[in-house]
Amino acid sequence: MQTVTTGAQRNPGIDLLRGLSIILVVIHHLALRIPLMHTGLAVVFPALLLKALTWDGAKGVKIFFVISGFLITDHTMRRWGSLGGINIFAFSGRRACRILPCLLVLLGVLAALNLLGAPDFLFHHEGQTLPGAIFAALFMHLNLYETRTNYLPPNWDVLWSLSVEELFYLAFPILCLLSGRAPKLIGSRLLVCIFALLALSLPFAEWQLRDASEIWQDEAYGPGISAIAMGVCTALLAHQIPPAMFARLTPWLG
């Protein structure tokens, strides 16, 4: 097993994408409560732009998913030399250490405020309970929980994207490990084909949701997993093509 020990440097392009996606998500949540069309911005900016900013939060989340897939794949290849050389226990342990401490603190705060009766932290829909919401957040199906019971308070609702992301990363190391057990050429090609098909399935995944509920259209696993797979494919491509050529190629691919 080859281990790469060189530290990864920050990528300014990824930081820029992160910043743009954060702005889109923040504006989206702000506009849901303070409609932009009813503010002084309507005098300065065209209505088409304000409407786009109001409803482009979902695109911001998809950008986060793509970035996540790219970074996880890039770090995995730098650490273990290839996806097939992944240490599944080390990978899963690092993910748990990165996410669980903050998640547990957040859930503790949300649960305390709920029990104290804070108005914006109470559940108002039939079938929603505090144990049910905590269980759904911890076991990667809060999006399904909301689809079944309606939206949770906003401070809980934002955790739906974590359910999509962590489900992908439950399967990711298993697929990588299985590809490493196969003959080298076959395993690597099969892995690339799987992630490429997942990435290309995004239009189909969204089309399939056209008659689904509003919540499931926004929070379904399919589009999110496809977006993460796009990031995986981009990282694989970046490791196969010389940096100078990749820099010239990506604007055309974009």
UniProtKB/TrEMBL annotation:
InterPro entries named in the record: Acyl_transf_3_dom, Acyltransferase_3
Domain of life of the organism encoding this protein: Bacteria
Domain Acyltransferase per the UniProt entry, residue ranges: 12-204
Coiled coil region boundaries: none
Keywords attached to this entry: Membrane, Transmembrane, Transmembrane helix
Membrane-spanning ranges: 20-49, 98-117, 129-146, 158-178, 190-209, 221-238
Protein name as catalogued: Acyltransferase 3 domain-containing protein
Organism: Gluconobacter kondonii
